[in-house]
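Input structure tokens:
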């Protein structure tokens, strides 16, 4: 029994070492040759070709739905261009003067401020301005002042940066962080 266990253990170690060598080779190939097939695999295995890099590369190539509505951002990687509206595939994507997905500019008034931070679900990928959940929440009660600060493709680090950069300006009564497990590894 001990002999079988040792053989299994050695095989497992060999398998993991071999896998590591294969992933390293693919990452090196992606870095040196910029081969598309290798870069797709490298997104999983190498931080140099992270999903954020792939997002920005696709954005620059015009392969994203949100072409011409995002811009590079110093701390968050990317953000919406303030005051821009784009119509694509029957949907309207609007950003307010502050550069967040909204049909209205954020104001500090006496209404109950609800700050939303999140990823593409909060941002509203592939959905019209009036179909996203932050807009629907705003319509529930005129006493609400919903601040949708979700960003397409954002991870929890970008959500935290957004919160840190905006919370003092608006002093919300509540902050809702809407995320999924994938956001934890972005």
């Amino acid at each position: 029994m001990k002999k079988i266990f040792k053989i299994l253990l050695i095989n497992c170690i060999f398998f993991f070492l071999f896998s590591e060598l294969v992933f390293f080779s693919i990452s090196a190939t992606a870095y040196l040759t910029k081969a598309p097939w290798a870069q797709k695999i490298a997104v999983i295995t190498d931080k140099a070709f992270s999903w954020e890099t792939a997002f920005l590369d696709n954005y620059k190539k015009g392969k994203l739905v949100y072409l011409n509505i995002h811009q590079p951002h110093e701390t968050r990687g990317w953000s919406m261009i303030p005051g821009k509206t784009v119509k694509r595939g029957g949907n309207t994507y609007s950003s307010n003067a502050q550069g967040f997905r909204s049909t209205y500019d954020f104001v500090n008034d006496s209404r109950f401020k609800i700050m939303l931070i999140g990823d593409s679900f909060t941002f509203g990928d592939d959905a019209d301005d009036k179909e996203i959940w932050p807009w629907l929440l705003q319509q529930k009660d005129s006493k609400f002042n919903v601040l949708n600060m979700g960003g397409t493709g954002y991870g929890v680090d970008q959500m935290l940066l957004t919160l840190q950069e905006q919370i003092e300006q608006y002093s919300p009564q509540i902050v809702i962080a809407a995320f999924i497990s994938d956001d934890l590894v972005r």
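The chain is about 40% helix and 20% strand. The two ends are 43 Å apart (CA to CA).
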